[in-house]
Design a protein that fits this description.
The chain is an alpha/beta fold and 477 residues long. The protein is 27% helix and 17% strand.
Length: 477
């Protein structure tokens, strides 16, 4: 059982790290698509390039960097650790070394970047196309079935061959296309684009009229897909086991858990905005949007940049009632069962604080859909006076709460020149949610005992450093 707030590190200390067997030069060049990467560096004229690898591919990093330097003449350096999730391009770490471009290796969420040119090289993981096609036929015996084929990015190289085998048998099958160009081609009216993938949809009802077939192992990507298209039946094929199956994950149960977190967000008075990415385009606009949303909802907010969140880090902010994580679509659905406070997504916070947004059954994991001009953006409704507010009862605490948007006046906080009230504790609690939280605790630290402690003259203290004071070993007066 994992510790809730800390770990003794025994697992990390006992883990043995062994270098992987060296791959043949030809296999290394094919797996990491050296020709495509070399062309990208040469055509861009880049002289300093960052190579970002996930942990499972770091053993090949030195060899790949050496081959790239020999082929391009540019300086290559490897990002040793990512600031956030490895699926996102770490522009911050690359900019620290003055990189002109980034080569991102391994699985990727395909979130658009803000500044640096990026080339995604997924790594061509092996896929038995014949076995995958046979599993598809067993799962969908009806040849007129409407099915959308999705895949993990590491198997995208084999989707063309799979399409050639299945399209003659299934006239209504659709294969998604990856969108990772810079800039991408414009989306056509008959297409949908989501999660860095395009879908040439032909059915009048859109994607919800299709079943989904996912090629890849179970993970965050599949979970995000299933929550987003929760009205579509899902099946999958795991290339590591060569087994196909109908997904039996109870999506309704997962949605119930997420909707419970929405209720927690409605009850929250203090919300911590966790910055989970510094490279995905639009994250600054979303931070401003969330601050405005929480301000209008009468909630206090703190913006926190703690890197990769874990229970030990977030346990330091006990006055925060709920956290909202601003991250890419794959990393937004963080399991917060081991955390002291729940962690919600920006969409869930909007459901809790924006009266204009109603639950329709569609779930959004990409925060860019919430920004102005996006497909799912909802303007905040006009401010409702407090006298006209409709009361609401919390489903968790049973207490009454107001569901209207307010506009707290700027003069609510007293200016620094104002005369302070006599009760300093309550005056501070009115201003600071942290002080209010401290006031409500049964234990508040050392008692001041003003007027009770006898006054004594100042005396000279010890001199030196802690390891060897000048009077070390001498009897203290």
């Amino acid at each position: 059982m994992a510790a809730a707030f800390s770990s003794d590190g025994e697992v990390a200390l006992r883990r043995e790290l062994r270098p992987a067997a060296a791959a043949p030069r030809g296999d290394l060049e094919r797996f990491y698509e050296m020709d495509r990467a070399t062309a990208f560096v040469r055509e861009g004229g880049f002289r300093k390039v960052a190579l970002q690898f996930p942990d499972e591919l770091l053993t090949d990093a030195a060899a790949v960097a050496a081959l790239m330097e020999a082929a391009t003449g540019a300086e290559m350096f490897v990002l040793g650790d990512t600031t956030y999730g490895s699926c996102c391009v770490d522009e911050v770490a690359a900019e620290h070394a003055s990189a002109e471009a980034v080569l991102h290796y391994g699985p990727a969420c395909l979130s658009p970047c803000r500044k640096l040119p990026v080339l995604h090289i997924f790594g061509q993981q092996p896929l038995d196309v014949g076995c995958c096609a046979e599993a598809f036929r067993e799962l969908y015996p009806e040849r007129q079935s409407r099915v959308v084929v999705l895949s993990d990015v590491v198997y995208a190289h084999a989707m063309g061959e799979l399409e050639q085998q299945l399209c003659p048998e299934y006239p209504n099958i659709i294969f998604s296309r990856l969108v990772c160009g810079d800039p991408p081609d414009p989306v056509l009216p008959e297409e949908e684009c989501r999660f860095g993938r395009r879908f040439p949809v032909e059915a009048p009802g859109g994607l919800q009229d299709y079943a989904m077939f996912y090629v890849g192992a179970e993970g965050l990507a599949l979970t995000s897909f299933m929550l987003t298209w929760n009205r579509c039946p899902f099946s999958s094929f795991d290339p590591t086991t060569n087994c196909g199956r109908h997904e039996t994950l109870n999506v309704n149960r997962a949605l119930m858990r997420r909707l419970y977190l929405v209720e927690r967000a409605r009850d929250a008075r203090v919300v911590g905005i966790l910055v989970g990415t510094l490279g995905v385009a639009g994250y600054l606009a979303l931070l401003q949007h969330l601050r405005e949303l929480l301000h209008r909802a009468g909630k206090r907010s703190y913006t926190l940049a703690v890197g990769k969140p874990n229970p030990a880090k977030l346990a330091n902010f006990l006055e925060v009632d709920v956290f909202v994580l601003v991250a890419c679509a794959q990393n937004s659905l963080l399991d917060s069962s081991d955390f002291y406070r729940p962690i919600v997504t920006p969409y869930e916070l909007e459901l809790a604080c924006n009266p204009a947004r109603k639950w329709t059954g569609n779930y959004l994991t990409d925060f860019r859909d919430l920004l102005p001009g996006a497909c799912a953006h909802m303007e905040l409704p006009p401010v409702v006076p407090a006298t006209e507010a409709i009361p609401d009862i919390s489903l968790i605490t049973g207490e009454m709460r107001a569901t209207h948007l307010c506009d707290p006046p700027a003069s609510q906080l007293p200016p620094s020149t104002a005369v302070a009230c006599r009760d300093q504790t309550w005056a501070l609690a009115e201003i600071s949610p942290a002080a209010s939280f401290l006031e409500s605790r049964s234990w508040q630290g050392l008692e001041q005992q003003l007027g009770q402690t006898p006054i004594s003259k100042a005396v000279q203290g010890r001199r030196g450093i802690a390891i060897a004071y000048e009077d070390e070993g001498c009897e203290q007066p």
